[in-house]
Write a structure and sequence with these properties.
Elements: H1 3-39, H2 48-75, E1 91-94, E2 98-102, E3 106-110, E4 113-119, H3 123-128, E5 136-139, E6 142-149
Parallel strand pairs: 2-4
Antiparallel strand pairs: 1-2, 1-6, 3-4, 5-6
Helix pairs in contact: 1-2
């Protein structure tokens, strides 16, 4: 599989994972909302259980909205462009790990490999930003060499 085809398939996998994250957040939000409705009217003026349920629902609602925004960011990656430096949308292959610079997805299993989806906000990206193939960098006391970028 050539580099751009690999990148396209990897982005598809990232989108699938983000879709699962969206469904999980929506499901949790809906379940908590249903519990709050089933609980009924507050039993007293300040009902901590109902308040707790509504706060949890609001947390999942925020998570749901954030995951939808992040999914839109993923869709903005130009899958027809091969990156020459570490930037948004780049697949970065080091001597130790593989990364895709997109959103914080954590560990992704793709093509029998482990790839880490990292966002532009994490310290690791800040250290790698703008580097090219062949460059080295150090993060948390460990040295890495960039073997490829696409």
């Amino acid at each position: 599989m050539d580099k751009l085809a690999y990148k396209r398939k990897l982005i598809e996998k990232c989108l699938e994972q983000q879709d699962k994250n969206i469904l999980n957040a929506k499901s949790a939000m809906d379940d908590i909302q249903e519990s709050a409705i089933d609980y009924g009217q507050p039993q007293e003026h300040y009902d901590s259980y109902k308040s707790q349920l509504l706060r949890k629902r609001d947390v999942f609602a925020k998570q749901y909205e954030q995951t939808k925004i992040e999914r839109e960011l993923l869709k903005k990656i130009d899958i027809k462009k091969e990156c020459k430096t570490v930037c948004f949308g780049a697949v970065v292959v080091t001597d130790d790990q593989k990364f895709i610079i997109c959103i914080s997805l954590g560990k992704i299993t793709f093509n029998n490999e482990t790839i880490f989806g990292i966002s532009l906000k994490v310290p690791l990206y800040k250290v790698m930003e703008g580097l090219e193939k062949g460059n080295t960098f150090e993060f948390n006391g460990k040295k890495y060499q960039i073997k490829d970028i696409y």
